[in-house]
């Protein structure tokens, strides 16, 4: 087993041009529903990548694809690769995936109230992952489970280990979920809206806990969330998604200071500010539907126009044939160094030497 | 793990309603245990061979003996007084109860208590066995349909729909006629107890084959909703293999509905057994079952000379059993569900 060096230049997770589609439930002949259409992202050890976007934009499907947890059928991986330490996870057989799940990559779900099996004790559930992935006896597994519970700050783990999920509060259950996920020391943690169902104080505690565990273990984290406040405080790199595509990808401060895509600007604009007296907030729609917003991007005159489904493509946009894959009308263009924006694919952009989004950056560390 | 849940559940304080429920289910359990012990306990006595072997013919069993004098009437622990025979005959003729027989005697002077107990044994065995068949088939059919999904699920559940559409009684009658036909074709001469066994078996298969349908639907629905639960996703995410997911995570969550349905299926099977015996399919005279005892009792109900007790006792026993089973089912459901005692 090669331990990943935290200073390695190779990303832990490298998602390249991932596209996932689902059967259209209305009829067999209807076009497939493209949940993810060409997503690119990388995660380095000890790095937190925040994936933000509205419901249904493909955040969770991307995370689920990493674990091969997308039900197939109706789901289907159309194209792309997900490299985890150089291995393509999408082509791994189920048997090999069983070993990756829970051991190398762990996942935390957004529903702590229902993510634990009601008929088993907390201890049984934490120990299950340990027993599955490590050759260790029940006694040893119990010790590890107790330690994991201590790590996530559950008081009196010796007493709580034999309790049932319904005897725990929501915050405690989420801690149990995290203990379950971390018991096997995964290298990558997919946190799918880990704090959405929790109140603000618990939210802060859980996120702090994750940060601390990340520091001590060198874990990479994919943090999926709607909450821009959470992103601002925890993320190193942000990936903004819309309609299955990455529309903007940059370091956290850079994105907050200078959002380049109208949609990202719309998102930030719609956050209410405490000191402002306003009758109504500016909606995302207002910004996104304003053609002037699209002209602000550097290089607009050369035909570099942010992609948006309801906006007409610029002159010079590559016409898509019938056989072209969904999502190929967009390209992630590195507008500035380490700052990508999803743009319409034009001949001008195709001619430029492009680089896939890839930022090895951690806040605080220079 | 479930044992732990069981052991732990009663120690926590329960709301008033649940406490009544627990008392009711305990009462039901005791009643049922006593009833079952009495019924099963009477079986060796009722099935024992009595009488003498004249001309080398086999002695008949007590419940089907033609001669009432062969110690048939009372169990040994309730001996017949010398003048009882005459009193029983008179009482039977007049349509009165006989004081020395606890539950009276029937038209032929047979002790109703003894017949009710043997009938109970038959009914309980048939009911339990048929319910077991229904639950086992239904559970696995439903689970396989839900797990397979897609077209397989569609075909399996449409099959259930079609079977639902067929009239139950028709299937059972056809089955019974078919068995009779096969027997006539083969031409074997079966002893009466073998015939009874065969009839009982046919009845079991018939009831079991019909009543698993509901179970299959219930379980399929449960599995579908459980599979969509986040905790099933969570257990996939920690790398639990498919079979282990199925047996260790899905099945224990199904215990509630399975137990509830099973406790409902037993009375339903007892009722169908009664009904079919009433129609003359399945358990036949002289072997009693609660069903054909009640059917006999109903025939004895008339304005001139009513032997009302012939109907009352079997019906009361059926009712008691059904009620007990329902209470027990309710209690079990609460015990099996660790969340049941939240408040």
Q: Beta fraction of the residues of chain B?
A: under 5%
- Roughly how many Å apart are the termini of chain A? 30 Å
Total number of strands of chain B: 0
Helix content of chain A: 25-40%
Given the C-alpha coordinates, what overall shape of chain A results?
globular
Structural class of chain B: mainly alpha
The protein's oligomeric status is heterodimer
Largest sheet of chain A: 8 strands, mixed
Could you tell me the number of beta strands of chain A? 12
> With helices defined by DSSP (H or I, 4 residues minimum), what is the helix count of chain B?
11
Summarize the largest interface: chains and residue counts.
Answer: A-B, 34 and 25 residues
User: What is the terminal-to-terminal distance of chain B?
Assistant: 22 Å
Stretches of chain B where pLDDT is under 50 for at least 5 consecutive residues are 1-14, 67-78
User: Regions of chain A with pLDDT < 50 over 5+ consecutive residues?
Assistant: 1-6
Level of helix content of chain B? over 70%
Morphology call of chain B = globular
Tell me the radius of gyration of chain A. 22 Å
Descriptive account of the structure:
The complex is a heterodimer of chains A (about 375) and B (about 350). By secondary structure, chain A is an alpha/beta fold. Chain A is built from 13 helices and twelve strands. Chain A has helices at about 60-65, 95-100, 120-135, 140-150, 155-160, 170-180, 200-215, 230-235, 250-255, 260-270, 285-290, 290-295, 345-350; strands at about 15-20, 35-45, 50, 75-85, 85-90, 105-110, 190, 220-225, 235-240, 245-250, 330-335, 340-345. In chain A, the strands form two sheets. Chain A has an eight-stranded mixed sheet with strand order 6-7-8-3-9-10-12-11, with helices on both faces. In chain A, a hairpin with a 2-residue loop joins strand 11 and strand 12 (about 340-345). In chain A, helix 6 (about 170-180) packs parallel to helix 7. The longest helix of chain A is centred in the middle third of the chain and has 18 residues, at about 200-215. The two termini of chain A are about 30 Å apart. With about 350 residues, chain B is mostly helical. Chain B has eleven helices and no strands. Chain B has helices at about 1-10, 15-45, 85-95, 110-150, 150-165, 170-185, 190-225, 230-235, 240-280, 290-300, 310-335. Chain B is globular. The interface of A and B includes residues 128 and 164 of A.
């Amino acid at each position: 087993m090669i331990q990943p060096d935290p200073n390695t230049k190779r990303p832990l997770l490298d998602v390249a041009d991932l596209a996932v589609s689902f059967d259209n439930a209305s009829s067999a002949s209807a076009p497939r529903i493209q949940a993810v259409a060409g997503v690119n992202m990388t995660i380095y050890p000890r790095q937190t990548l925040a994936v933000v976007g509205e419901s249904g934009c493909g955040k969770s499907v991307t995370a689920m694809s990493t674990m091969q947890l997308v039900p197939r059928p109706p789901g289907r991986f159309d194209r792309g690769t997900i490299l985890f330490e150089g291995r393509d996870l999408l082509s791994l057989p189920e048997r090999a995936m069983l070993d990756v799940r829970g051991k190398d990559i762990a996942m935390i779900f957004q529903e702590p109230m229902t993510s634990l099996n009601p008929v088993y004790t907390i201890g049984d559930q934490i120990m299950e992952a340990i027993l599955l992935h490590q050759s260790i006896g029940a006694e040893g597994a119990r010790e590890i489970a107790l330690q994991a519970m201590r790590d996530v700050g559950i008081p009196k783990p010796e007493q709580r280990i034999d309790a049932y999920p319904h005897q725990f509060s929501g915050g405690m259950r989420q801690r149990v979920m995290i203990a379950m996920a971390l018991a096997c020391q995964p290298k990558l943690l997919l946190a799918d809206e880990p704090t959405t169902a929790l109140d603000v104080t618990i939210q802060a505690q859980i996120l702090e806990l994750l940060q601390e565990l990340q520091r001590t273990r060198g874990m990479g984290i994919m943090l999926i969330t709607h909450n821009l406040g959470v992103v601002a405080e925890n993320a190193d790199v942000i990936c903004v998604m819309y309609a299955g595509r990455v529309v903007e990808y940059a370091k956290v401060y850079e994105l907050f200071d200078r959002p380049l895509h109208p949609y990202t600007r719309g998102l930030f604009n719609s956050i209410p500010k405490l000191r402002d007296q306003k009758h109504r907030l500016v909606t995302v729609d207002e910004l996104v539907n304003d053609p002037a917003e699209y002209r602000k991007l550097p290089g607009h005159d050369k035909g570099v126009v942010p992609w948006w489904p309801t906006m007409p493509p610029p002159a010079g946009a590559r016409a898509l044939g019938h056989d072209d894959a969904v999502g190929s009308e967009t390209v992630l263009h590195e507008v500035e160094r380490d700052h990508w924006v999803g743009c319409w694919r034009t001949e001008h952009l195709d001619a430029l030497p492009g680089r896939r989004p890839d930022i090895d950056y951690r806040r605080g560390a220079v | 793990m479930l044992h732990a849940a069981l052991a732990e559940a009663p120690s926590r304080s329960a709301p008033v309603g649940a406490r009544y429920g627990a008392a009711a289910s305990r009462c039901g359990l005791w009643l049922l245990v006593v009833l079952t012990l009495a019924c099963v306990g009477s079986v060796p006595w009722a099935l024992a061979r009595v009488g003498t072997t004249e001309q080398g013919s086999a002695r008949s069993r007590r419940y089907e003996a033609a001669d009432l004098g062969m110690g048939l009437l009372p169990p040994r622990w309730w001996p017949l007084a010398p003048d009882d025979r005459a009193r029983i005959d008179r009482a039977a003729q007049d349509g009165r109860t006989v004081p020395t027989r606890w539950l009276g005697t029937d038209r032929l002077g047979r002790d109703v208590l003894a017949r009710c107990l043997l009938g109970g044994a038959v009914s309980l065995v048939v009911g339990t066995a048929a319910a077991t068949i229904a639950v086992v088939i239904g559970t696995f059919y439903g689970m396989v349909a839900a797990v397979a999904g897609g077209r397989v699920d569609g075909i399996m559940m449409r099959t259930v729909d079609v079977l639902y559409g067929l009239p139950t009684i028709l299937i059972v009658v056809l089955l019974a006629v078919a068995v009779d036909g096969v027997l006539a074709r083969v031409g074997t001469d079966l002893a009466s107890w073998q015939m009874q066994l065969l009839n009982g078996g046919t009845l079991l298969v018939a009831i079991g084959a019909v009543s698993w349908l509901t179970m299959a639907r219930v379980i399929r629905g449960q599995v579908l909703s459980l599979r969509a639960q986040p905790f099933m996703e969570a257990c996939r995410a920690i790398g639990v293999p498919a079979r282990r997911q199925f047996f260790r995570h899905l099945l224990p969550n199904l215990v509630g509905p399975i137990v509830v349905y099973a406790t409902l299926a037993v009375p339903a099977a007892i009722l169908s057994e009664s009904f079919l015996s009433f129609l003359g399919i399945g358990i036949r005279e002289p072997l009693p079952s609660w069903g054909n005892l009640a059917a006999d009792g109903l025939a004895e109900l008339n304005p001139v000379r009513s032997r009302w007790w012939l109907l009352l006792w079997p019906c009361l026993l059926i009712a008691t059993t059904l009620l007990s089973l329902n209470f027990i089912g309710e209690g079990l459901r609460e015990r099996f569900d660790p969340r049941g005692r939240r408040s």
